[in-house]
Fold this protein.
Amino acid sequence: EDFRKALLDQSSVPFVTYLLVLSNLAVFLWMVFEGVSPAQPTAMEIIDWGANYAPRTLDGEEWRLFTCMFLHIGILHLGMNMLALWNLGRIVERLVGPVGFVLLYLVSGLAGSLASVFWNGMNPSAGASGAIFGVAGALLGWSWKLRQSLPQSFLRSSRFLAWNVLVLFGVFTLINLYRPMIDNSAHLAGLLVGAVCGLLLGEPIPNPGTSKRRWRNILVAVIGGGGLFLASSLMPGPPADIVKLVTKYQRVRSTLNEKLEQAAGRYDAKAMKEQEYATFLEKEIIPPWRELHADFASADNVPPAFQTTIQSYMDAFVLYETSFELKIEEIREENPQKGIQSEQRFKEANEIIERIGEEG
């Protein structure tokens, strides 16, 4: 009780925690208002809003390391993170002060973002959990450093928290099986960096004065900033933007399917002549497939895990192009055999696309 009273006497309202919770809620509501699904946003939507994604983060958009900390992959992800931040933040902010709390939150969150780029960069990632695991780690580091002077009740609470953090990490691991945009490497990095921050910021309660706290804050800023700068300098070059390529393919294919359905309807209704239909295929349908093939072929620095997939897409594009070329030859040469070959190529292309989908 004396420890709790001393802590409350020396600390103000944890306004930074409240501000962070409100900021995350505001960003989520803004996204939903703009049409993003509150339950299952797409990868492209999250990227457009500022998710951490190596092909863009490492290609001049370093701000994503920060903005991803305020984005969430659905309301469940947001709810779990904000509940944890609310419970942990109000304690830790009082222990280390508002400035120290901002520093450890930012350093832990950015460290988590860098870890995500390095270990899981081809999956767009988002969430405040790297920073929140940092807050949990800070409490554990702070408690361990001052374990000789803290009441047993507080130490028991800290140990209980440690188990809760491990359980939470396990829950996120399970969620990650279904939502790869929630990244466990960010959680682990945030936890470890946060623990170091807790060790650096640890001071007795009541604290000996603002001067020592100020120097501890400076120490965290210097060491944290230097560590982040060093880590960022070791990052590799940007890999190919696979999400952008696949999204373009999906958009182009949808558009071409609509055009083909409309043209087929006119053709069947005798509103379009055979030669006119052949010209339509030649001018409207084949060029987009060629362009897609060129885009995929020109992709630089494709990670090994995606090289087979990219090649499969290109094989399918060639088959689609060949299929329509054979269809044109069938019409212009009045050769039914070319029509059979056209259907076979189209079927083979669809089978490749289906296999890609099955492989994830």
User: Anything to note?
Assistant: The mean pLDDT is 89. The chain has two domains: 2-233, 242-359. The chain has 14 helices and no strands.
